User: Fold these one by one.
Assistant:
Number 1:
Amino acid sequence: MTVMTDKTDVTLSINSRSYTARVEPRKTLADAIREDCGLTGTHVGCEHGVCGACTVLVDGEPVRSCLMFAVQAEGCEIRTVEDLADGDKLHLLQQAFIDNHALQCGFCTPGFLMLIVGALEKNPDLSDEEVVEVLSSNLCRCTGYQNIIKAVKSARSMMVKPA
């Protein structure tokens, strides 16, 4: 038995670059980013939207890319962790994660970075309680969270809302 699948052409704007792919309508944004666009910094963990490892910014909002279809993202501006560094110069939060030992295995780190970058770009004056609240939606099995919180607190004062 042969199963025919209809594929759809989709153009995704990721990190200010256009990617065209032919995908099944059910293909997740996470899988399209990784498989069709070659951007493997976005990690897929639970595939149920629980862990947050796949968090990317879609039109400035954090989105679990495992819960969004690639076809839904057409016409949106998508930012992944690959967009944070400027060549060899790390983003303030990436450097803060290193300086504060906020990662161990690193699997969850891209999701945490995109989640908090989105939050701090909107409001660089997040209170300590708001930082913890934002970070509470993502899971980490290694760090115990304290150094992640410490890293965010150290970087937030230097974050500037984009123009």
Number 2:
Amino acid sequence: MSRSFDELINVMARLRAPGGCPWDREQTYASLGQYLIEECYETYDAIREAEETGKTDNLKEELGDVLLQVVFHSTIAAERKEFTIDEVVEGVTKKLILRHPHVFEDKKLETAEDVLQNWDELKKAERAASGTEKAATESILDEVPIHFPALLEAQKLTKKAARVGFDWENAEQVFLKIDEELAETRAAVETGDKDSIAEEIGDILFSVINLARKLEIDAESSLRNTNRKFRTRFKFVESELRGKSKSPESASLEEMDELWNSAKSQ
């Protein structure tokens, strides 16, 4: 390992040792789980910022925070004599080499899709060798964690199904499916049945995510961009209202809508 990485390992061990930090010493795999998720989302935002502005200082910091979580978990594991950070690094290095035979061996894979297909085949072979093949092959969808955020889970599920041929032939067919789901949602609304309405709205969202996949658009990024756009425009509305000594609560919908259109034009 590098000198700086070794120093990080030593600092984390010191924090966990007797006489170290009381908070750090109390942490477990489970208690740290939420922080790992939060750091990953913050890193995702930093990636978007880097792409948009070209500035990577924030990305560097957030990647460090994610690395800290990996080291933290590995330090706990070492204390329990379960595994070490060296074993984590060795494992992922071995995996990269084994799953890239087109780089480290003589296998010919011409396209990115060929690489992904081969990656899945190698994963199956690894499971078979480790004795976990039966559990893994009950469904190809079992490989998608059920605790993923719903949008990400939907993207992963539909990609898995599409790879074995369970997919629409083209995007136009997905448009028709969305129209069908919209009609069913309207019918559910007329009944007033909340459970049916919720189910149909879920079907609309699922269909739209499929449309994004067919058009090779990342639905997560697309929605995040729209969220940011909404933030910017609504903040403009609030700012303009403050200039008139008003607030959204005191303004009429027509007034806010006019300001919203001004924000769009800008």
Number 3:
Amino acid sequence: MGPRQNQEHLAQWMARHNNMPLERQQSELQKEPGFRQLPRQTQQRMLDRLTQLNNMPDQQRQRILERNEAMERLTPPQRQQWRDAMQQFSGLPPDRRRLVGRTFRDLRELPDQQRQAVLGSDRIRSQFTDQERSTLGSLLAVEPYLPAPHSTDNIPPGR
């Protein structure tokens, strides 16, 4: 869920609170309007995510914040398409998930017309199920709006 009108984005919030120790950041997060009205499980997930972000190397944290900002710019239907594709992707067995992720990264480097040709090729049809090809197509449909992943990422951005 993205920020509501007049709410700052995660990257802005993190920049404003960057020089604070984690405990103080957590306290500030808990003071944010609406935080206490969230379900306890959601509050804890947000606090845990803040801890994760603080424990990441700067470059990795920056990539995550850029991806988050890109997701904020997606239209609601695009965000739903991405969530659905990521749910399908996450449901794949680990070996298939690695293969689909690697293929996604390879295909996103190609121009759109060439991507479509590869997706429709006999090689891709024989290598992937209909569901896996559908997942790839959905991920690639939203991909132009997302920043490029770091070369060591094992899955599509947003996860």
